[in-house]
Structure formats: C-alpha cells, structure tokens
Amino acid sequence: MFRVLLVDDMEISRRQVRRLDLWNGATNFSIAAEAQNGQEALNLLKQEQFDLIITDIKMPKIDGIELLRETAEKELCPCVVLLSDYEDFSFAKQGILHGAFDYLGKPPEYEAMKDMLKRVEQFLVKKKKEDELVKSLEEKLEEKIEDAFPSAELEHLIEAAKGKQPDITAAANRLTESISALFGDDVIKTSTALKKSMSELISQLRSHFAWMCKFIDCNKYKGFDYVTMGDTQSAFEAFGAAVGEMTGEIGRLEYGNSESQIEYKICRYVLENVDNEISIEGIAKVLYMNRKYISEVFRQRTGELLIDYITRVKMTRAARLLLQSGQKTYEIALQLGYRDTEYFSRLFKKHMGVNPSHYRNMTTH
Fold it and tell me: What is the rounded (10 degree) CA torsion for 318, 323, 326, 331?
C-alpha cells in the first residue's frame, strides 16, 4: 500500500479528497497523514516516509510550491501532485519547473484523481526497480572508487570553502587533478567521484552556513550530471565553475569569517533572520552595541553601508522566493518586512534590473 500525505489548510478541502472512493482498498493508496500547511508537512516528512504528497498551493507559512521545492531538494518524497482552485497557469508552471508530477483543479474529480493515482503507481513501481538497479551499480562503483578516493584533497577544498579563501579555484583544481590521475578518461568513474565530492561539499557548507539554501539553489549543484558533459575535461571545468559560483555567492553575502569580527556577526544575524523584519536598531540590541558604532564599523570594514547590505540581502532572498515559490509579489514583500509593495518592487528593480513579475517570467521560461 502506497502512503499518501494530504496537505491543505482547509479542512473541507481535505474532506473532499478523503471522501473520494479511492483509498484503503479501492486503489493501492491510503491517506496515511494530513497537514494544514507546508511547515507541518515538512515536519511529518522528516519523521515518516511517504510515497505521494497531494498538496494545495495556496497555504500559510510554507505554500505548496515551496513544499515541492523543499521535498525535491531534500529528496523527502518521490512524487508530488499539486491541487489548486486558481486558474493562473503560473502556478502550474512553477510546479512543473520544480518537478511536480501533476497539477489538478479543486475540488478534484473522481476520474481525474483515479487516473492520476494509476499513473503515480506506474511511476513509483518503475522508479523502485530503477532505483534498485542504480543503487546496486553505484554501490559496486563506489566500492571501487572509495579505495582510491582523494579524501585529503576534498577536505582541503571543503576547508577552503568554509574559510572563504581566495584560492578556492586552486583547491578545486587540486581535487580534480587527483581524480584525473586516478580515473583517467573514464567519464563514468570521474562523474561519480565529482558527484560524491559535490554532495559532501554542499553537506558541509550547509552545516557551516545554515542560511545558505535560502539564497542559493543547492539542488542545482548537487544534482548536476557530469556524464552529460561528454568528456572528463569538460566535467572538471563544470565542477570548478560550480564551486566558484557557489562559494562566490557565499562570499558576496557574508563578510568576515570569525566570530570575533563585528561584520561577521552582523551578516550572520541578517542572513539567518532574512525572513523577519530587520533594523539596525534591532541588530545593535542583539549585539549589545551602539547603533552608530556598528554602522560605522561595518562601513569601514566592508565598504558598504549597513542599510544597503540589509536591502541587498533582502532582494537576493526575494529573487530566490520568486523562483522557488508560488507566492505573489505582495506576499513576498510582507514576508520580508515590506508593507508597501510598490516600494518593495522599486527596490527589487533597482537591485535586479527588472520588476519582480518580469524577473519571475524571465527566469522560468
């Protein structure tokens, strides 16, 4: 029996789905749990295993698109179906972009839901067989690679990235040269080694920079298939470029690298609390320092006004939300502490060159 997680903030909507004669024997699916919003769903997904998520899009706290993105990025569930009573195709487009299996209107019709469940079952059965085969092959390959893997070079790269060292390219090249020496022109083994390296690098960076995936598409880097590059040299170049992009963005967002540095403490606070209202007065209070003092020290050490830095971080987060969620511009503005949507849009255009709606359309086409 396949386990379904049903997510909707409206009890009546969940009841409409439950009442369909499709569960507990009528098909191979059962509604194993329910959640009222994306945050509740994520909490359940961390505790239990589900085969299918059926989720509304428009919900408080974390919406369906954000839930879909988080689920895909963290591989929490193999299949997500979106429900919405909104006819706006932009929601479906966002869902497709982030890997939704299907998109159904609300309330879902019996035949449409039945057909969807049939296709989901076929997908899950096929995926299970493919996963088992891939896992078997990967285990055999990793066993061969593990014995010779350049762990010291990878550790050197990880530490360089954590410390935001300027020689990150050299550290990446050192790792790829070691991989090249081990596996030569074998694209498959090289790709496996690079994916292993990237996965471990991202895992370590996410632990060190807790705010990282609020701003950076970690899944894009983690899921890259180096085999598609065709040859090992191109794969190494792609790996190096990805490391450079990722660490470069970290460096642009966070100044300093020591708890003893005021600018570092300020950046950590802003980045970790970006979804809340942030003020210089609030930062000064948290750090038990004078407002003018922290503003002046920050400017002297970074060359950027603190208020400009806060805005830049907010707009970078806004850009990420526009791509990863189905939230409207005014909802993103409110989430980031801007009550005036027009003012927020002007700020966004100043930093990104286009207004929020154009940015979303440009980057999702």
Answer: 10
